[in-house]
UniProtKB/TrEMBL annotation:
The lineage of its organism: Eukaryota, Viridiplantae, Streptophyta, Embryophyta, Tracheophyta. Keywords: Repeat. NCBIfam families: PPR. It comes from the Eukaryota. InterPro entries: PPR_rpt (IPR002885), TPR-like_helical_dom_sf (IPR011990). PPR repeats lie at residues 1-28. This is Pentacotripeptide-repeat region of PRORP domain-containing protein. The keyword Repeat applies.
Length: 156
């Protein structure tokens, strides 16, 4: 239910359900934490809440961070307009390079939302290194360049 609320853009309801779950003594798992992170992103509770959640995952519930959690953090940073921090975070994610493909793609989408064509070109290079046949990356980049007035020969 937490995930359904979070993915439907009902972040406050997802967070309320998470707190009720804890009050009832139900222990959260990796999926619960990922859903709560998504909910935090939708309601704009980013830095402090996310940090507290990560600390709680490890110390209170002994849940290890996964690639999905890192991807979620990267998306949250980008979605909130913190593209510099998001890009730095993806570079520093403690996962093998191939496991960063989702984070690079999410960051590319966030570059489009923020109309940052220069960063998008850089991010697209990383995404395409990992998944050269991903047509969605090319389409997203082309749409961003078209909407920002950049020429097609600027594309990757």
């Amino acid at each position: 239910m937490i995930q359904a609320y979070a993915q439907s853009g009902h972040g406050f309801e997802a967070l309320e359900l998470y707190h009720e779950m804890l009050l009832c003594g139900v222990m959260p798992d990796e999926a619960s934490f990922k859903s709560v992170m998504v909910a935090c992103s939708y309601v704009g509770m980013l830095h402090d809440t996310c940090h507290a959640l990560l600390v709680s995952m490890a110390s209170d519930f002994d849940v290890a961070l996964s690639k999905d959690h890192f991807n979620c953090i990267a998306d949250m940073l980008g979605r909130s307009g913190q593209l510099d921090r998001a890009e730095e975070f993806v570079h520093s994610m403690p996962v093998p390079p191939l496991e960063k493909a989702t984070a690079w793609s999410a960051l590319l989408g966030n570059c489009k939302l923020q109309q940052d064509a220069e960063r998008a070109a850089r991010v697209a290079e990383h995404a395409l290194e990992l998944n050269p046949g991903d047509s969605a990356t090319y389409i997203l980049l082309a749409n961003l360049f078209a909407s920002s007035g950049r020429l097609q020969d600027d594309m990757v």
